[in-house]
Amino acid sequence: MKRLFFALALAVFAATGIGATTMPSAAQATMGGMQNVTGDWAVQITGDQLLVGTLHLTQVGNTVVGSAEAGGNSGVLQIDGTLSGQTLSAKFRGPKGNTGWLTLNFNDKGTAFSGEWGYNGRKPNGKIVSRKFISTAF
């Protein structure tokens, strides 16, 4: 149900132009007191191995979904979670079907986050740090 709502909301936004990036970037960081984390993020993940890449996040309300290409054409990492204040609590599904959790804490400006991740039912397995790609387009 949550995914159906998200898909419908994205369709409405695309059709109406709501959410178009016409605001200055500082205003995009927070909208109506709520952090906006939509965008592309350069991430570094530690744990089983060191991974570096780009994570794309899309936010509608407090629901956040994301995806990242796994290295070597091995598939896509997907996340689905809820943003509360500056903290995203999410579940992930890896390209090989492995699942787990992650917690990301965003800074006040919405330009970086750090956090940790683990497999389902386990303590943290690694750390995540990231910085948002900032558009310089006019």
Write the topology of this structure.
Layout: H1 2-16, H2 25-29, E1 30-31, E2 34-35, E3 39-45, E4 51-60, E5 63-70, E6 75-84, E7 87-93, E8 99-106, E9 112-119, E10 126-132
Antiparallel strand pairs: 1-2, 3-4, 3-10, 4-5, 5-6, 6-7, 7-8, 8-9, 9-10
Describe this structure in words.
The structure is a single chain. This protein has 138 residues and is mainly beta. It has a single domain (36-132), classed as Porin. The chain has 2 helices and 10 strands; from the N terminus they run ααββββββββββ. Strands 3-4-5-6-7-8-9-10 form an 8-stranded antiparallel β-barrel. A two-stranded antiparallel sheet has the order 1-2. A hairpin with a 2-residue loop joins strand 1 and strand 2. The chain is globular. 20% of the residues are buried. The model is unreliable at 1-28 (pLDDT under 50).
Low-confidence stretches: 1-28
How many structural domains are formed by the residues?
A: 1
Mean pLDDT over all positions = 80
Distance between the first and last residues' Cα: 37 Å
Helices and strands, in order, run as: HHEEEEEEEEEE
Oligomer state equals single chain
CATH class: Mainly Beta
